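Q: Given only this backbone (474 positions), what sequence would you predict?
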């Protein structure tokens, strides 16, 4: 059977017991869904939740699905170690395969025209000051009018009413380029918004694929099989045949509406303003459809953004520095990047850092480069490396006006006492916490021999529970 959201939920139940929790009690879509994820995160627990009784909707909702590295690794058919190092095996791309509409589960239910009502879907209001419900796990498909290639991307969609929503194309998003090309012709932009599929499909949609298009092939590489597609009802766009829900419509030329506020992954309210408007003309879905949501500004949101960037940064930095060992984009601080390298020349750290910055020019604020004996997934190791191998007078490089104006990070805006703001550029910093390159001799790090550590019998030690167990202290 082809992979989809339901096959992955079955994998979680089978291979990661306790990873999925079912909530049958009534849950309000306004803060109720996200309250579960926020409470779990406060307890340092990250289960996925399946809500079967969302008030005002007959559709179930799954949230927090990719809030752990273990579930992410399971989805991508890899290991946690590969995920956090960025060292992934070569994957074969699989182009999408078109199937007959009669065999496509996403065509089991079709709403058209006046039947369309987005309020019948369990679209959450995520955080306290959000301007309304938002789609967060939705991949938008558009066809470039110049090349004919189909592009996929995850954008934020503010749902205004039963048939209209906003869309914010941020920075260099290819979706924004496609929309501008249609708008310059005075034409509406056909769009299909996919909700609910195997996580590998979502990861393909956010992959840093060069140029417009290629996300279906990337998703196929993650899946290990071709994505089955079927023609949309209202356009020639190929939509995933095994998706849970597809919203079909057009971006209206020349029409904008105030979008936001919405809490983005940095944990702040930024952005907003007039944004393009999508009119939904048809909805197709599976019987007993499952709506998928990502906990906005929560751990899942940050993790899903961090892991694809690790792979992209690893690929680009390794082309410049063959001695690259590992990459880490910390989940709690996605604007930071840690690089571990085998240093051969003194300018290697700066070259590596700029390769990372050029991969993620919109998000990275700090790149820390350390030697290959440092575990970059361990904050204690990183702090030790900075404390012992970094001299601010010579190892700190500030890159002024690196990041473009506006965007999602609060530092890309200037503020005044009346609540006004204006977009501005911000800087990035490079920290070289590496030892000097050979042949310079640097003090050797103190270590207990690894063979002795491996031979230690920690599991054989006995916990002391009472002083009477220590008679020689009497």
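A: Predicted residues:
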């Amino acid at each position: 059977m082809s992979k989809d959201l339901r096959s992955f939920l079955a994998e979680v139940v089978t291979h990661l017991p306790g990873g999925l929790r079912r909530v049958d009690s009534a849950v309000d879509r306004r803060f109720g869904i996200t309250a579960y994820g926020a409470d779990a995160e406060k307890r340092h627990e990250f289960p996925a939740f399946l809500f079967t009784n969302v008030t005002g909707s007959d559709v179930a909702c799954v949230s927090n699905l990719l809030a752990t590295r273990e579930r992410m690794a399971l989805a991508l058919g890899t290991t946690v170690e590969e995920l956090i190092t960025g060292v992934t095996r070569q994957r074969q791309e699989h182009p999408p395969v078109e199937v007959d509409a009669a065999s496509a589960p996403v065509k089991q239910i079709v709403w058209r025209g006046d039947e369309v009502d987005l309020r019948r879907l369990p679209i959450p209001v995520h955080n306290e000051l959000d301007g309304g419900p938002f789609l967060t796990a939705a991949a938008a498909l558009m066809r470039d009018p110049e090349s004919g290639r189909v592009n996929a991307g995850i954008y934020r969609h503010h749902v205004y009413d039963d048939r209209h929503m906003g869309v914010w194309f941020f920075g260099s998003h290819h979706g924004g380029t496609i929309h501008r090309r249609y708008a310059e012709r005075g034409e509406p932009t056909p769009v299909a918004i996919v909700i609910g599929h195997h996580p590998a499909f979502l990861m393909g949609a956010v992959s840093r694929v060069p140029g417009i298009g290629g996300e279906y092939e990337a998703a196929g590489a993650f899946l290990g099989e071709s994505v089955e597609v079927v023609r949309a009802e209202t356009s020639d766009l190929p939509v995933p045949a095994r998706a849970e829900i597809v919203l079909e419509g057009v971006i209206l030329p020349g029409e904008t509406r105030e979008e936001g506020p919405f809490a983005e992954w940095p944990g702040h309210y930024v952005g907003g303003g007039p944004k393009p408007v999508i009119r939904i003309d048809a909805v197709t879905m599976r019987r007993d459809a499952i709506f998928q949501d990502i906990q906005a500004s929560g751990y899942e949101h940050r993790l899903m953004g961090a892991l694809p960037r690790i792979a992209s940064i690893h690929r680009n930095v390794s082309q410049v520095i063959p001695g690259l060992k590992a990459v880490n984009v910390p989940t709690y601080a996605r604007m930071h990047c840690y690089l571990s390298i085998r240093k051969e020349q003194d300018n290697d750290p700066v070259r590596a850092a700029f390769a990372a910055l050029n991969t993620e020019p919109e998000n990275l604020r700090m790149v820390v480069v350390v030697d290959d004996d440092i575990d970059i997934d361990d904050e204690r190791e990183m702090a030790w490396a900075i404390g012992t191998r970094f001299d601010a007078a010579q190892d700190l490089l500030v890159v002024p006006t690196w990041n473009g104006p506006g965007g999602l990070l609060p530092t890309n805006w200037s503020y005044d006492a009346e609540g006004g703001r204006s977009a501005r550029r911000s800087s990035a910093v490079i920290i070289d916490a590496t030892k000097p390159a050979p042949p310079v001799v640097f003090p050797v790090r103190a270590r207990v021999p690894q063979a002795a550590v491996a031979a230690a019998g920690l599991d054989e030690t006995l916990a002391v529970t009472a002083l009477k167990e220590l008679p020689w202290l009497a």
